[in-house]
Design a protein that fits this description.
A five-stranded antiparallel beta sheet has the order 4-3-2-1-5, with no helix packed on it. Strand 2 and strand 3 form a beta hairpin. The relative contact order is 0.07. The protein has two domains: 82 residues, no CATH class; 71 residues, SH3 type barrels. By secondary structure, the protein is an alpha+beta fold. The protein is built from six helices and five strands, in the order ααααβββββαα.
Length: 167
């Protein structure tokens, strides 16, 4: 949007004419102007325009929704790629977890899933709390660590202690 306004200001000598022409300027990703998207018709400008183009029409709505969905998917893909975002695995009830907080890590146990998306009810020493999945770290059992690391009991214990120090 900033580039569009800059281009309009540099090409037009009059500031007010340039600002008035923005609602009639087509967006690059869908070839429709903001006025067309909101009112379903073109705006009357200083350029000559057929009167039939000033009558509201919503024939492009399905096409716009498809392009808009694709545009949002591309934005999400680019955001996820640049921020290394990845979906977290769901947590089973009765799993031991660590809850991250400003005071450090608090141990807890998942009681159930909450109504909110990706949220869980966790039982802690201070009572039950609702937390989002991103604030919960599943405590791995020794059996899973032995299977994943193919190491000895002592190595697994050292790895677990290293993880707990980070929390």
């Amino acid at each position: 949007m900033v580039q569009t306004v800059r281009r309009m200001l540099s090409s037009s000598g009059d500031l007010y004419t340039a600002l008035l022409s923005y609602p009639a300027t087509p967006l690059p990703w869908c070839n429709l102007s903001p006025a067309e998207l909101s009112m379903g018709r073109r705006l009357r400008t200083s350029l000559p325009l057929a009167t039939k183009l000033l009558v509201p029409q919503w024939t492009y709505l399905t096409e716009f929704r498809g392009k808009n969905k694709q545009y949002k998917e591309n934005q999400k893909k680019n955001f996820d790629r640049s921020h290394r975002a990845k979906p977290l695995t769901p947590i089973e009830p009765n799993s031991e977890v660590w809850i991250t907080s400003e005071r450090g890590a608090i141990p807890g146990r998942v009681v159930a899933t909450s109504d909110a998306p990706r949220s869980y009810i966790v039982e802690t020493p201070g009572g039950e709390v609702h937390r989002n999945r991103r604030h919960l770290y599943v405590v791995p059992t020794e059996q899973t660590w032995l299977q994943e690391s193919n190491g000895t009991q002592q190595e697994v214990t050292q790895q677990l202690q290293g993880i707990l120090k980070k929390l």
